Amino acid sequence: ILQGASDGERNNCLFALIHFCKLSGSTEEGTEAIVWNWNKKLKKPLPVKEVRATLKLSRDKKYQLKFQEDPKKHKINTKLELKEKYEVPPGWVANEQGISKIKYNKNGEEELIPISSSYMKISGRGHNIDTNEVFLRLFWKDLKGRKYEDFFPKRELSTKRDLVKNLSAVEIDVTDSTTKHIVDFLAKSASYNYRVIEEYTITQKQGWKKNASFALGDKLYDKEKIKEIYLLSENDRLKGIKEKGTVEGWLKAAGKLLEYPRARFKIYATCAAPLLKLLDVRSFWLHDYGKTSVGKTITSELAISIYGSPYILELTANATKVGIECMAASFCDLPLFLDETSLVDQKILQSLVYMLANETGRIRGSIKPGSLQKTEHWKTVVLSTGEASIKKENTFGGANVRVIELYGGLVKTDFEAVEKYKDNINENYGVIAPLLIKKILSYSKEDILKTFKDLKSKFKSGLKGRVEVRLANTFAAIATGGFLFEEVMADYGFNENTDPEKILKTVVDMYQEAIKDLEGADYLDRFLDNLKGWVVANGKNFINLDILDSEDEKTSWNENLGEITEEYVDIFPHILKKQIESWDFDYKRILKDLQEKKITKCSRGRQYQTKIKETKNVYVIRFYKNKLFSGEDRNE
Q1: pTM, full prediction
Q2: Contact 485, 267 (CB under 8 A)
């Protein structure tokens, strides 16, 4: 039958072919594809209408074949396979002149109805592993004959409104009147050629996927294999995640830089980025600041180069907040590198710290009434450089845990190490990360967690403060990344730094520096230090009972800030609120903390009612003098 049929046997062969397809387990779409291909190969094909009628009849439950198969003469192949190629669906003509629809006049003669002067076809089908959405790959030629190919969501090629929006934007000849025909043509093309069009795996972001696989660049890694994937993103920075050169070449570029503990620590930190989700550790920010030309940027570039081109992946810190949010979402489970934070307004920089470390984007409304856009989430490690610290006096304690600061890059300028890096890094990058991901996948999650917990216990030993203990989680994750990085190096014969004690010492030294930087870093303590200085500097503007009746009292009622007595410091609420906000602290948060620590005395809410200078009752914020100035019992 597949080899052909005479004119008198075409109908019986058509029925038999459909019967064979059903026995082989073929789907309706597959059966139709086989039937149409078979009919086209006949010297005298059956009319399109007749084939359609037979296919429709075959779907009827009462369908009966018009012949009886003789089992002695024929063998039914239950694994029917055909060598097929992409073909235009029946009822259509598509060629270099464009697309036309076939119609039949009253005499049964074919007529071509032009639909579009642009040639197009469905060349692939994709499955988005992030959203489970189906995509179709469209090949087309624009009006100038230039060839293009791109993926579109299937739903956007299935409705007239979305089709016009998408195809007109890529210079395809489409109008409102022809849209419904093109929708029909594309749908039939996808169904008719479903066996022959290529299948793709699509992703919009990097990182861990539901099936314990990891997307890195244009590859998907799991324990058993590596497969090509298609990156469905307009983020050109993702193109920077790629391999170039060799491990030996990268080590030549790293050269003497790896001899500096701070450079190696940054590498360990970037290696921790893929581990954060496995270890349930929060994202963090590693900021290297200080004077210029001491290797801050070079060491950060080296750390990011294990994933790809450091120059493509490097971001300027003055990028928009929305842009950086999109980057974090696209680079999920990978590090980000922001250079020159000194160019950014401090308030904006602080908001970036919270946004990236909190791992969640902004909630935004959708065009559809009452609905919201999908909120982005991520895990990341942020490397940044600048001339100044990004921690401020008004920084909440949580930000101190999220931000690790190093001062001075390499501490000294090493021109030989820097030049060696610059001479070789352009030809060798992105070769370590694939090995790192393979190494992570070679272990069970339980094994990695055990290593992490053992390291965390070493960091937490002897610690009491909440901030220090929380920071121990971050450094344990960095140390875990360091162990995996050195294992990768050892696999390639580079065993200079595989000593566990040496690896741990590199991280512990940075940890001790970070802990020292956090001493006295409590949010309320920093506010009280500011307040003490302000009260002393403005002492003459407070009513002081010791000099109330003296001749030195010059201030008038309107200039007074409050009152100082033997036991208390009373400050008018509006004066204190203005001062707190001028220091960029949060007024409500400060009052709440003061009350909880019992540093203030309250009679109504968080205020205290009293008399000043024999006036009527007024409300003040009343501080216990001994707790404000000596810190006595402040932490009770």
Answers
A1: 0.72
A2: yes
